[in-house]
Amino acid sequence: LISLRALRKIYIMGDQEVRALDGVDLDIQKGEFVAIMGPSGSGKSTLMNLIGCLDTPTSGSFLLNNQEVSSMDENELADLRNREIGFVFQTFNLLPRTSALQNVELPLVYAGVSRQERRHRAEETLERVQLADRATHAPSELSGGQRQRVAVARALVNNPSMLLADEPTGNLDSKTSLDIMSLFSELHQGGNTIILVTHEPDIAAYATRTIKLLDGRVQSDVRKSPG
Amino acid sequence: LISLRALRKIYIMGDQEVRALDGVDLDIQKGEFVAIMGPSGSGKSTLMNLIGCLDTPTSGSFLLNNQEVSSMDENELADLRNREIGFVFQTFNLLPRTSALQNVELPLVYAGVSRQERRHRAEETLERVQLADRATHAPSELSGGQRQRVAVARALVNNPSMLLADEPTGNLDSKTSLDIMSLFSELHQGGNTIILVTHEPDIAAYATRTIKLLDGRVQSDVRKSPG
Ligand SMILES: Nc1ncnc2c1ncn2[C@@H]1O[C@H](COP(=O)(O)OP(=O)(O)OP(=O)(O)O)[C@@H](O)[C@H]1O
Ligand SMILES: Nc1ncnc2c1ncn2[C@@H]1O[C@H](COP(=O)(O)OP(=O)(O)OP(=O)(O)O)[C@@H](O)[C@H]1O
Ligand SMILES: [Mg+2]
Ligand SMILES: [Mg+2]
């Protein structure tokens, strides 16, 4: 599904160079459940933004379904992002003046789903993250963990073939975290691909493979032995 | 230091009532290190905002140093907030177009500290959270955990007599979390008061007392036995 070779992301700040990613080689197959760990600033969110087609690398190759992403046109990319990929951002990125329900409906608007079906599916997904009674609240009227769950619901609502989740349980107590992780397991069992950034080993344990980053490179890549 | 009686915070949404805090009774002495835990939405951030004088209760009494906070004038409150209290917000609340260094200097500006001393103390505090090499970056040029550490540095820079930290390690890997917690322990050993919201038991273990909230009320209040 995903093939990265010598991937780099370099920021130039005055006369200094910040190497957010410094040569990443990585293959991820369809249907895998991968956890990405590593210290603060090691490049995890940068990697996620590149895989999610929200950013472009400075150099290197990124193949998605054997197609070089840098040669795709904007329509193909937009289509990918809106129909194939669900993204839970580290900073949620909810629309501030919009209710939780409308925030969750947004990917279905892009997918051209009818209004009635959109409402029904968004309500159902909010129920799955235990926020049915907060549907009309705007983000500023929600707790930190509630906002995080709205971001998770928005990423799940269109049953994405690839879910990218950047620290989706950072603001959640352990019970609520388990609820979210069982939703992800369910999605994975449906054959979908999940890439999840976390620094909690208990959360990484749900994945079948753990990749550790350090200073913008892959430091280790461990697959769980089956059974 | 802090005395709360029958404290309530109620939001009216249409014909519904949301009881964010529903009758909190609590005493916290000067120099205590208190952890506040509880499920997502149980009222932790609401309680922190009230204690930090950033919000006002719907009803009930809040005494700070034996003075009723609701009867203080705006000057007294501003003085408290800027000189006595350091606050690490769950959503960081950094100034977006301002460098990390200038964000950390801000409390010292309010405290009337000279420019040279401000710069020196802000640099020193950024060093203590291992971000000396990110001083000139704006928040959008920092990772999630780096932004969180800038928020921690800003809260610590004026050596506050009361530190309020709302999930200060939610975006940090375990090693970086330990670095932050040892800074807090240091502050506590200097005689300062710390109130910390977390849902990680390992982090709560640094405190000498753990209060659990449920549905806007205190569910349990446990002091560690000394020694
Ligand atoms: N402005 C508001 N209007 C309506 N309801 C609100 C508002 N702000 C907060 N709430 C509600 O008050 C309750 C408590 O919120 P609070 O932010 O204190 O929770 P919390 O314990 O900090 O949760 P978390 O662990 O998720 O951060 C939540 O159910 C939330 O939906
Ligand atoms: N726009 C930018 N300009 C300059 N440097 C940047 C920019 N964005 C990110 N960086 C730097 O790139 C590095 C990697 O950032 P990234 O957000 O990928 O880290 P991360 O592994 O997600 O960290 P965390 O666990 O703290 O979220 C960091 O050192 C950060 O300071
Ligand atoms: Mg990150
Ligand atoms: Mg909160």
Ranges of chain A where pLDDT stays below 50 over 5 or more residues in a row are none
Which ligands, by name, code or SMILES, are bound? adenosine-5'-triphosphate, magnesium ion
Strand order of the largest sheet of chain A: 6-7-8-3-9-10
Could you state the order of secondary-structure elements of chain A as H and E?
A: EEEHEEHEHHHEHEHEE
Structural features, described:
The structure is a homodimer of 227-residue chains. Chain A is α/β, with parallel strands linked by helices and 227 residues long. Helix content of chain A is 34%, strand content 29%. Chain A contains seven helices and ten strands. Chain A has helices at residues 44-51, 74-84, 100-110, 115-128, 144-156, 174-189, 201-204, and strands at residues 2-13, 16-28, 33-37, 59-64, 67-68, 85-88, 162-166, 193-197, 209-214, 217-223. Chain A has a six-stranded mixed sheet with strand order 6-7-8-3-9-10, sandwiched between helices. Chain A has a four-stranded antiparallel sheet with strand order 2-1-4-5, covered by helices on one side. In chain A, helix 3 (100-110) crosses helix 4, helix 3 runs parallel beside helix 5 (144-156) and helix 4 crosses helix 5. The longest helix of chain A is centred in the C-terminal third of the chain and has 16 residues, at 174-189. The radius of gyration of chain A is 17 Å and the shape is globular. The mean pLDDT of chain A is 95. The interface between A and B is medium-sized, with 30 and 30 residues. One magnesium ion (MG) binds at residues 44-45, 90, 166 of chain A.
